[in-house]
């Protein structure tokens, strides 16, 4: 894909400003897949911004999301006017991205048919999940919970597990097409990797989601503990919640273990790709440790690892990546 000055700004400073902690992972990716994955991330950020702009009525957000999905799917679809949404953004970078969405779509049109198809497939899945969220939670004025564990598993697939699948198809095509791997197991671990990262976010951000009328912990689980979604707004209910919360912590860790297995299966010479996978796994694992040691119903402090801890993880991986033994030991989760 030929990269113009405008594309360099989209895939450089704008991507950096909207991707936050994930930017380092995007930057370390091999050049063969960096533009495609970076572009997919930008398009997903646009759809996420559409879905999350609370000052715009849910019905309008839903319509805009569907219109933008149609344009991603078909370059002949009508353009989407983001001027209203852009005015409602607190983050200037997200406003700028919305106003540059047409350029992001032009970049999509410049991809090879195969790569463009992969981006379209993953955005179709992500936007279906976002659409489902808007229909389920509406404007957030009434606290609503997912009903079952299957609902939560489906949600984590739609917004993150599918990304692992997409990432794997691209990297297998462009980075190690001839590697001898069990593709079925490799893709399954990729999906679990994505689900695990999303589950970490859900467990960490429980109070913030509750404040926005969203409870991703299944109502069936809460009922087993004698709780209603509203009860989770009181941190004093943590002892009652803990027995049904702990299995989700375990599931998140098991998914990240699958992500570690996925990373170890990547051919050893692909240093950049292995680092891009390792950092979110290790940061996610450290975040889970913080959640496990805290009362996750407490709104403050937010359960994130410090920047210095994240830098420590990066440094710890950089010297190990050439050496099989020290590298493999990183994933003894």
UniProtKB/TrEMBL annotation:
Pfam families noted in UniProt: SQS_PSY (PF00494)
GO molecular function per UniProt: transferase activity, transferring alkyl or aryl (other than methyl) groups
Signal sequence region: none
PANTHER family: BIFUNCTIONAL LYCOPENE CYCLASE/PHYTOENE SYNTHASE
Full protein name: Phytoene/squalene synthetase
Organism the protein comes from: uncultured gamma proteobacterium HF0770_07M15
